[in-house]
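ok so I'm stuck.
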Amino acid sequence: MSKICIVGNSVAASRTPEEAPLAGWGQFLGEFLTPYHEVRNYARDAMTARTYFTDRFATLLNMLEPGDLVLLGFGAVEQRIDNPARYHGPREFKEFLYLYIEGIRAEGALPVLVTPTARCSFSVEGNVVDTLDVHPEVMREVAKETGVALLDIVEHTTRWLEQLGPQRARHYFRWLDAGEHPNHSDGVIDSTHFNEAGARAVARMIAIGLHESHEIPPGFVDVGTLSMAPEFAGLLPEFTVEAPEYALYSEARVGSAPTVDAPVQSKTVGAMQKFSGTADAGTTYVLFFENGAYLGGTGVNGKGKWQWRRVVNWPAGDHVVHVVGYTAQGVTPVSAVGFTVKDHVQPPVVLGPRDGALNGPRPRFSGTAEAGVTKVMVLEGGRLIASAPVQKDGTWKVTHPHDWKPGTYVVEFVSIFSAIHSRPTTLNVRIHGVPEGNWIRESTLSREPCSDKCEHLPFAGRW
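replied:
not stuck anymore, here's the structure
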């Protein structure tokens, strides 16, 4: 019996009943295979190409046998440029994929690249918003360069979600109103992870890809399981509310208006801003309007808590949303919250050091960023090397804890706001010091340095 091993992140990871309605596509893939193949799911939460390679890949290689398949489902976590522990620049991501392919092939197994799944995020035109940066394209390039099988699941899930549309797509994600599920009494808004129906639909797409791939031997997939396509779910409850405008224009009101905790009044937010708040006891539903038009609604739990997010991204600019509660006795007064949506962010300004100026081995980078930016990420050679928090006055500064070797380097600085990031600001950094290979350095190589800063003789060229 040959194995199909799954390596990747939380979207593929198998889940327990206690984690319901969360589900991963890896736990359902076996439903579409012939009885002669076993699925082993090694996908884990927040797993990246780097962490799996350094922590667990050797163990996987030791248990592979010729003819096994290894599905490499990376690329969704690695695009988090705001998180140094997770981010992989395009070059680093590509190099790790090469290493995976080389190692798996050396054991006689077949590597398969699986691009990430699309997220439940739509534009006002009804198109799925691309939130995955360049990482799927890097996987396509590696597949072409190495001849490895590619399952382009981001393309399949994008088409699937656009067929569903914003009024239905949320049915397939771990996205629940308050009070809708006992495991999430306050509700949960998750546009990345699937519920059981969504995970099973993605598993079917994976199976179809395996069956249709020219690089994978036949016999893995039970074709009979693919013949029946899943039915589309009905409209979400928020889009089936009858005559919602009554709640906005009714003259009769009961109780008090819902309280909006987020977004904060007059705050600048991202295009996927989440709303949350509370309502009077007995309020069962909260409805949202802009310019008199109904946007959607959400349930309220027994403690009066609610949360809501549009499946459609907010367009950039100023918005005022009116919020009304519904009770058995009638509708509540109306509350309102105004906010500004930013859909792009300007690159940071670098004030020091001056471009092209000579520096010692530990240059201090500093500058300013526009309002709302929370941190500035520093990259060198496409790899994250530091993160600088932005202060309330818009200034930032950071010094890398390791000495730079003498030479000239190109350093990039990127502003982070919400889930978006800016284009990079580029700085040429020249480091002054004793060059590598110089006798002053080479003459001390018979001894290990005792510390980062050493007072012993002879001087080895380090500050």
